[in-house]
Specification:
With about 280 residues, the chain is an alpha/beta fold. It has 2 domains: about 180 residues, P-loop containing nucleotide triphosphate hydrolases (Rossmann fold, 3-Layer(aba) Sandwich); about 70 residues, Alpha-Beta Plaits, CATH 3.30.70. Helices cover about 35% and strands about 25% of the residues. The strands form 3 sheets. Strands 4-5-6-1-7-8 form a 6-stranded mixed β-sheet, sandwiched between helices. Strands 10-11-9-12 form a 4-stranded antiparallel β-sheet, with helices on one face. Strands 2-3 form a two-stranded antiparallel sheet. β7 and β8 form a beta hairpin. α3 packs across α4. The two termini are about 30 Å apart.
Amino acid sequence: MGLLGPNGSGKTTILRILTGYLLPSSGTARIADVDIVDNALVARAQVGYVPEDVPLYGWMRVQEFLVFMAKLKGLAGPSATNSVEAVIERLDLGGVRRILIGKLSRGYRQRVAIAQALLGNPPLLILDEPTNGLDPRQIIEMRGHIRSLAGERTVLVTSHILGEIERVADRAAILLGGRLLGVHALGPNGSDQRIRMRVRGPSEAVRACLARVPGVQRITAEPLPGSDLTIYLVDSQAGSIAEALATAVVAAGFGLLDMTTVPRDLEALFLGLTSGSAERV
């Protein structure tokens, strides 16, 4: 699950509330059906958290740090040992387990940060800007680690970079100015859809006809110069509505010359939600 928005949109604030660093001024939040205020310790036990600026102890060795963090999480004896070894193997830290954290590259420090968050195998992993400050190779490696963690648990990732969310997330929640603009499925199996239609008929009448189809979210019209044809881009969050659109246009007596599904990327979704200049239903 990606949490996307420009700087100042509220991403980090949401994460700090979920992880107990900030108390909500109003409303409620629950993790695994546990209220984060009324039952804070139980709620926090469900979460592994990697903040944007990771507070690692540079004078500790990797394994020493992970053992220390396991104890802080209430793990002891074989449980702590097994958990530490599991995250070292999972994040490929075996070769640096005896190295001082302060001597590690930024990429390895980020791996150590994720490793400590996975101790105890929490059902929710929260990563705040996990690729921030990494070089291109480290970013590619980190994407792979993040994708490998999905499925076993819920992974919530924030970024102000659209491409990073698009590469690792199955869904994206888009924030702007502290408000949720929408939640969208990503990839080829996403429910969001854009239909391109070339229709003959009065533009306003055709738009009104399309707008009455259930599931239509937004319509953009592009008249073709020197013609009575107009290209309509119809956005939907209701899965496939192509047949319903075609039926409505033909039943209303307009000329439907062609229609096709246009893949929608995250950039198009973001611009469509945040732009005030585009024509909307």
